[in-house]
Structures are given as structure tokens and as C-alpha cells.
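pasting for ref. prot 1 ->
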Amino acid sequence: MTIDYQEEITYISKKIRELRKERKLTVQELAYRCDMERSNMSRIEAGRTNLTVKTMCIICNALNVNLRDIIR
């Protein structure tokens, strides 16, 4: 079995964007909750950065979801 990391990054980034919109948050608001720059959050949602587990956990805490919710 081969895992395509770019496909996985794309899935996770879309899921983060979807959850943010469900909570009616702007990119700026989510970035603030995560203590990061808006431009960094934009790159994450666009799938243009390789997320660490730590960053994913910070985003999950800001969205009040489990890590499993963005990777499945």
C-alpha cells in the first residue's frame, strides 16, 4: 500500500476549512485562536504546507474537535 502524502495534506486542509466554515469563523479568527499569522493559516487551508502533529492539535483545540475528526 502506498500513501500519497499530497493527497492526505489536501484532505486534511479541506477538512480544516470545512470545520472552520461550519463554526462561522474567518481565517483571521481561527488564526488568532491558534496564535499564528493569518497567512500561515491560509497556507494550511490551501494545502501548501506540511503540518506537524502539534500544529494539527492546536487547530483541533481551536475548532473544538478531535484530531481524528480532521484525519478521517
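and prot 2 ->
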Amino acid sequence: MTGRVLSVASECVPFVKTGGLADVVGALPEALAGVGWEMRVLIPAYRALRGLCAGMTAVWEEPGLFGGHGTVYAGQVEGMEVLLLDAPHLYDRDGGPYGGPGGDWGDNPQRFAALSWVAARIAREGVAGWRPDVLHAHDWQAGFAPAYLAYSGARDVKSVMTVHNIAFQGWAPVHLLHDLRLPGEQFYPDGLEYYGGLSSLKAGLVTADWITTVSPTYAAELMRAEFGMGLQGVIAARAARVSGILNGVDTGIWAPESEPVPFSAAHPAGKATARAALCAEFGIDVPGPLAIVVSRLTDQKGIDLLPQVVPDFVAAGGGLIVLGSGDPGLEGAMRALAEAHPARVAVRIGYDEALSHRLFSGADAVLVPSRFEPCGLTQMYGLRYGALPVVAATGGLADTVIGVSPATLTAGVATGVVFHPTDALAFGQALTKLLQVYSQPQQWARLRANAMAHPVGWETSAAAYADLYARLRA
């Protein structure tokens, strides 16, 4: 092996997932193994995961872990080397990773400081004969890990802080400074202080040896006020040690040739069969392009723009199926669209993994009108399945989709439709462009073939992470 990495996060597929963070954390170990790096993943043993500990080995004891005893269990689960931090006083609760029916847990600062504290100690001291060369922390939940490592004086283990979504920053009141085992002398504007309080994400950003985020465009955007959400100055000050590395998708799971109705770029006939089955399932009849939205229903995702553009799209022959949940007002707006256009629009509130595969299999296009999108996986699924992405020119969307234009059509490289700015006028114009391309079968077939040929796996990204780790260790 070239080196060892301890990855610390609050989520990891297949154990616990609330969003794309879990997909990335779960995919990296296998991807990195292919380029010679051994990665172990440290996550909390939430209530649903405690049963796994019985089949694992206790390798670390932490008696005074923010109010109780902590034990780290190590083992291989579904081919992944996993470290589970079992601390019942912090993680053995009903609800999700971050909260229950009443909202976020009030002790989240301590819960994830504990995860970071143990990660930093294992990085310094090793566990069961294994010691990492690099500590890789993900998002605010692991943000204190690089800080604890740096403030301990350790210099032989390097740290990477990855920002998956800067909107979530791990804020805590300043009176918790000492309870969180942070040095008081570091509470100043260029250190831990953040608008009079603390931010675990900022702590990671100012102390890590390197900062990454999940697309090159998002890395640049984070230095601007409209995207940095208060941390743009911190990112800009460390610009020489900031880079963007695109996420990938698991091409073993997201594989059109392995779906119940299989198809591929070389044998696309199955896609028409999947499309017909999808329309029958939802009772719609769509003569033009069938678009899908698979998303959290929030303003960040641009869902509020759909009621402004879908009626014209439907009138021109298009159709839409929406799968997702989120803001109650937007859920209602999606239902209203379906009620107004029952022959062309269908909505399913919630999430269904099997249905999402059927949607990508049968769709002609996937709509991703996000106002900001660090990387995005939805457009990558669309590329993989020949559901042409219609995306806003932001973050990873801009980095992964080549928009239709006279130049890209002439060169034969377009893979979707890209629009800017993120407003109803530009979005509507993008849908008009989609309709125009769909009306030209040869051009449409070329775009679909381009999309399906576009690499969306982890190979390139894993090589970039491996290169970064090697440079840091050197």
C-alpha cells in the first residue's frame, strides 16, 4: 500500500445516509484501494448501528468522552474497514443522526466534537497497530478533528478538510469553548472565533493542512459572498491550499445495463421500453421529452421555479415526474402542478431508491435548476442513463455537463443543456432548447450517446485524492 488514511464523517453508505455526503464517504475507500491507499472510516455508532459492534473488536477506550464512556470497535463490514465510535450517552437515541422529532439535538456540538476528538487521538497514536498518514475530515461534523490534531502539536500526520456543503457550519456558543476542549488563546478572528461564537467547520478550515471541496467551480465560488455564506474570507485567505475534486458515482450500482429493462449507449432500445413502462406506471402520455426531478424540494434546488416554467413546457409537448420531499409549501406546489396537468405531470412525495432507478431509466431529461450545487450526483446519474441534464451553471453542475451551443453541437461534444442565471426566464429558455433538440432525432441520439459516454465514476477523482495525500505526506 502507498499510504493510510483515516476518514472521519457522520454518515457513510451503507450504514447511515441523509444525503450525498454518505455516498462519497462510502465510495472513497474502494476507489482509493484501486490506487494504493488504504482508508478506514470512523463514524458514530448510532442506535441502528450498535448491533454491528457485537461482531467487531474493541480497539480503543475513551473513559471521559464528553459526559460518558466511549469505545471504538473495528472490523470489516461489507468489504469496508470500519471504526465505530460507540458512546451511548451521545448516539444511542431515536431519530436521525442530527436530531429527533423536536428538532436538532441540543448537544450536537459535544456529540460531533467527541467524534473529532477520538479521530485526532487515533491519528496521533494509532489503533491496533494501524496509524494513518492522513486524517481526512468531512464537513462540519468532523471539523474539530483537524483542529484537535493541530493544537496537539502533531506534525507527522497531515489533515484534509473537505467541504461538501458550506451551508451547514456547526455553530456553537462561545461559552462551550473549554467544554469542547479548545484552547482559549485560539479564540480570535483568524482562529476559532466566528461571529462571536464557534463554528466547527471554520475550525477545520483554519487548521487543516489542505482544504478540498467537491468540484473545482464550487471551490472558486466559495470565495465569493453569495456562495461562501460567511466563510468566504476564510477560504480566500487559504486559496493556495484549496482545491476542488469532483465526486463520482458508483457505476456498479448505477448501471443501465443491469436494470430490469437493460440498455446501453450501444444498445439503446431498452430505454424506449423503460420510458413506456414509466409513463404507464404514472398514467401519463407525453409526446415530447419526458423530464424528471429527483431532489430535495427546497429553494436551494430551484424547485420554486418549476411552477413558472412547467406549464409552457407541458403545452409544448413535454412531461414531468417529480420524486422528492422537503418544504411543505413546495410539496404542495408540486401536487398542484400534477392536478393542473394530470395527463403530463405526476408527483411522488418521499423517496424510493428503486423508483429513482426506474425514473432515470425511462427519462429523456433530468432537471437540476439549483441555485448552488457543490457537486451534485443527480446530473451524473442522468449522464450515465442518457437522461440529458438540464442544469444551472453552478458548482459541480457546470463542471460535469457540456451545454448545447452552436460550437458544442458542431464539435459533437454537448451532453446536456446549461443555463444562467438561475431564474425562471433562463430556465424556461433552457427547456425550449431541450424541446428543439428533441425534435431532431439524429441530434438527440448524438447527445444521448455523448452523455452516456461521459466518465462519471471514481477513477479520476480517486487518483486526484491519492496525489493530494502523497504530496501532503511528502
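The chain has two domains: 3-248+459-473, 256-453.
Residues 3-248+459-473 form a domain with the Rossmann fold fold (CATH 3.40.50.2000).
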